[in-house]
Reverse transcriptase zinc-binding domain-containing protein (Auricularia subglabra), 368 residues
Amino acid sequence: ESPDDVLLAATSVVGLQRKIDLFYQWCRENLMRINALKTYIAMHGPKPSRMPQFTVAQQRVSVVTQYTYLGVVFTTNTQNMFKEHFSTKAAVARRAAHGVLHIESMIGLLPPKEGKILYMGRVDPHLIYACEVMPDASETLLEELYQVQKAFLRRILGVHKRSMLAPLHTETGVVPLRYRRLELALRYLEYLGQRPTSTYACAAFIESRRLMQLGARSWLADLGTVLRSIGATEALEKISEERPPIDLIQKHVARRLHASLREAIHPHSKAYLLSGRKEPQVDGPPREIQLCLRHYLEVPKAEHRRALTRVLMGCHLLALEKLAWKERYRQVVPHSDRLCRFCRAQVETAEHALLHCSASDDLLETRR
């Protein structure tokens, strides 16, 4: 059996036509036929002054600037040949996310635990597709995919679009897309380092390493750019080794992930209530965990669960948060002036409204 997606590569016009003719002859001998209408030519790099013509069995083959091979979209007229792939996968993932969230019209609000399972099964595969061959050296292209991830997480948590990004991951246990894709790329790096020297994969890895050492663009250089962008400088020199120590590199990356989340949720951030908190354990004392599905997200009643989530993530409508927004007819109100609507004496924080304020009889009655 032969796959129906076949790629022929050559460095010259004459060489490519020769390969096409040989492949056509091989197909005839094996009782197969090439469909010229589904065959395309793409030219990467400088274009010739006069566009050549290619044929399959005397039928002309079209020259295109965009094509799809094994689910990856390539373009020949853009600086980044994977640009359209990111846009295409972001659109597909967005449709998948909408399909998952549409079930809320039938079952009500989707619980975060089940939402996470559906996300990993239906949306995540599109966001990570082929990430091992295209490290995220472009922030703009990665952002197209990340928009889908953060919109989905905000929806299942019930928080608004101004919510902090770090709690979307610390509260659900879903790894930020940048680190998720980097982890898979590092696994592929490990695979390449283990290939026999006689394989094409090993030859490509050696060439990529040589180009990186020369300061030229390459797959390995892009991987280094990603590591540099997250601050994992200790791992930069290790990726170009003949057999990269992947376990050590992954530990560096994991430390940077946890440090970045910890730095984002500090005592002066919107989600200050989450700073330094500890997660209850079944068989021991509470301990600090950076990434996990939090126990309060399993509160059965959706309204209570979402209200608690909004308080903890700083997405409530109390003065502390609401008056921090700049609106059309109002500037940002200084922190000390965001006073409680009842007592007008203290800043209207969640803990003040829920536990301390005594200036409203209705509020006191509700607490009982």
The chain has 14 helices and seven strands. The chain has a mean pLDDT of 93. The first strand starts at residue 40 and ends at 42. The radius of gyration is 27 Å.
